[in-house]
Write a structure and sequence with these properties.
The chain has 605 residues and is of the alpha/beta class. Helices cover 24% and strands 28% of the residues. The strands form seven sheets. The protein has an eight-stranded parallel sheet with strand order 18-29-28-27-26-25-22-19. Strands 6-8-15-12-13-30 form a six-stranded antiparallel sheet. The radius of gyration is 25 Å and the shape is globular.
């Protein structure tokens, strides 16, 4: 258990319209009124709370150890390589055959994972883990490409649905938080996973290498070591920039500002965002998620979305737009390779309200409308004309999409008429509609609805450079990336995309944290962990790492499809293995079997 302190940070100002001015806060009806540039904005009182970042206390709920079961273990610290497909229970003696030596096969340029376990019937105190530099035979190399981190447990439950989260479900602990590189206590009668990541160099010579996972006590003495042989294939994965897979996690920068206690879009906010965008870019994220008007999704998130384009209706009835925040965020994302596409939400928000600053009344006003009205057309024609001019000036117009989420076909067509008339491309994450197949640059459909595309439609979209992907949501029990999903489900999803001729995967929330993301992954709405799969303090998760693993397998499939065009036997074998991923009607346990089977084939010389 990590017995830690909280980082103490507060903030008492908010940024609106691209200019941040710190003002006194005025308590009113359990809210705080923040004045910025003579504008009034309401934010929840919890804005000013403090949250753990660097250190925190791991939760304990649900179970206690069986003393008799643990007493049967041999004395001292037990260590073994273990399956990365299993959520090992905290208080159970792990069900495995101990092994201190194992082998993995990888491609050059791959980010590969392997899991180990530490456990004991007696308290082992504070331990540290590390991976040693690689050897080739008995010769040391300069390759230091491994990282070992403890995995922390977080509260989850069995809920995998949409709607208000039930309060009567039994909570349990799942090992998902890949902690920072730091010491960790290993108490008596607890199982502690260790997540080992190998960043295989792109320029490494093929062949066999060895490394060790070493466990050290507080005096720096090695108390356990596990050996790992790494068989490096003669093939090389593409760089992240060259990946074919289209990864799209919708970002939530406002959760970061609230959690870190810093002013929205201040320099401190940008610095806090950097490690998260770096991790997302490293995974292959393609798209920047930007917000045009206030809160396109209603109240399904903990932190409401402020617009990144400040819209003002002047006293003379003309419109004025401030792109300061929009530009700042797009440019920040580009620093980390997230620069292929800009999706702008939303011409059709869930509640069809559009907030703007009204200069005449010196207040925010809301236009409540439908996509059929003249008011809607006027609002968006003015907005998009000015937006297009700005995007052309920045050189971003061609990669910008006006994006919507789960909107009706009729509304999409109405919005398309306005946007398309000005040359804008459009994106939708939602249900399949045949009428939209030739219109949407980025068409992401719910898992399973991809079956409604004809092969001709997919081919036509591909020929035009349009993106076709799938997403999972709270409507999908499995496979998914809930905190209570089995780990291999995350790896299954990119391979499902590969088998069905799709370009990638989208998930609506990546770091949409609530009050207690490090300790409790349940949320007032949706299944446990649905709102985020990356933790505060720049902590990855088992499910996020397994998703990256699946992306790498997707890339291998694309390369080997080309390579095996003239090898009928290998081509047939690959197609047979991919057939196992053509259906999404699988249970979590099946995902591991299918993922492991194709992985063995993809890593053959």
């Amino acid at each position: 258990m990590a017995y830690n302190s909280f980082k103490k940070v507060f903030y008492f100002s908010l940024l609106l319209g691209g200019i941040g001015v710190s003002m006194p806060t005025i308590a009113a009806n359990n809210e705080s009124i923040l004045l910025t540039s003579s504008k009034v904005e309401f934010v929840a009182q919890d804005t000013f709370r403090q949250y753990p970042i660097e250190e925190y206390t791991e939760p304990r709920v649900g179970t206690s150890p069986d003393t008799l079961e643990w007493s049967k273990l041999a004395d001292g610290l037990q260590a073994s390589w273990a399956s990365r497909d299993v959520h090992y229970e905290l208080h159970r003696v792990p069900d495995l055959v101990q092994t201190s030596d194992t082998t993995i096969s990888v491609w050059r340029g791959e980010r590969a994972n392997i899991q180990a376990l530490l456990y004991s019937k007696s308290d082992q105190g504070v331990l540290t883990v590390c991976m040693t530099p690689w050897k080739k035979g008995r010769k040391r190399t300069k390759i230091d490409a491994g990282e070992a981190r403890f995995v922390n447990y977080v509260i989850t439950d069995d809920y995998k649905r949409c709607g208000n989260h039930p309060k009567d479900l039994i909570p349990w602990l799942v090992p998902d938080v890949i902690d920072q590189d730091c010491p960790h206590q290993v108490p008596a009668m607890e199982t502690r996973p260790v997540w080992c990541t190998l960043e295989v160099p792109r320029d490494i010579a093929p062949g066999e290498y060895t490394t060790q996972l070493q466990v050290l006590n507080t005096k720096g003495r090695v108390v356990k070591k596990l050996s790992l042989t790494i068989r490096v294939n003669n093939r090389t994965l593409p760089t992240v920039a060259e990946q074919k897979f289209h990864l799209d996690f919708w970002q939530q920068p406002y959760a970061v500002s609230r959690y870190y206690g810093v002013e929205r879009w201040s320099n401190e906010h940008l610095e806090a965002l950097r490690p998260y965008l770096q991790a997302l870019g490293r995974a292959g994220q393609r798209t920047v998620s930007t917000i045009m008007f206030y809160e396109p999704w209603g109240e399904q998130t903990h932190d409401l979305f402020d617009p990144m384009v400040q819209t003002t209706k002047k006293a003379d009835g003309t419109w004025e737009y401030d792109y300061t925040i929009f530009d700042k965020y797009v440019e920040l994302c580009a620093e980390y390779g997230i620069d292929r596409q800009i999706n702008c939400f939303s011409m059709v928000p869930w509640d069809m309200k559009f907030r703007y600053w009204d200069e005449a009344s010196a207040s925010f006003q809301y236009l409540q409308t439908t996509t059929k009205t003249d008011e809607y057309r006027e609002l968006w024609t003015n907005f998009l004309k000015a937006f297009k001019a700005h995007l052309l000036e920045k050189g971003w117009f061609e990669k910008t999409n006006i994006a919507m989420d789960e909107r009706a076909e009729s509304d999409m067509l109405n919005a398309y008429q306005i946007a398309n008339a000005l040359g804008f491309k459009m994106a939708l994450a939602g249900n399949y509609h045949a009428s939209l197949c030739d219109k949407l640059q980025d068409f992401c459909v719910a898992l399973g609805q991809d079956k409604k595309f004809t092969s001709e439609q997919l081919a036509a979209r591909c020929a035009k450079g349009q993106v076709t992907t799938i997403y999972t949501s709270c409507a999908d029990v499995e496979p998914n990336i809930y905190s209570n999903s089995l780990p291999a489900e995350a790896a299954f999803l990119p391979l499902y995309a590969a088998a069905n001729g799709l370009d990638g995967y989208l998930h609506w929330a990546w770091i949409n944290w609530d009050e207690h993301p490090l300790t409790d992954s349940r949320f007032r709405k949706f299944g446990a962990g649905d709102t985020y799969c990356y933790y505060p303090g720049n902590r990855s998760s088992v499910r996020f790492e397994r998703l990256i693993e699946g992306i790498h397998q997707y890339e291998k499939v694309q390369i080997l499809k080309e390579e095996y065009k003239d090898n009928p036997e290998k081509k047939a074998k690959l197609e047979t293995l991919l057939d196992a991923f053509k259906s999404h009607a699988v249970v979590g346990e099946d995902c591991a079997e299918k993922v492991n089977a194709i992985e063995v084939f993809l890593n053959e010389e």
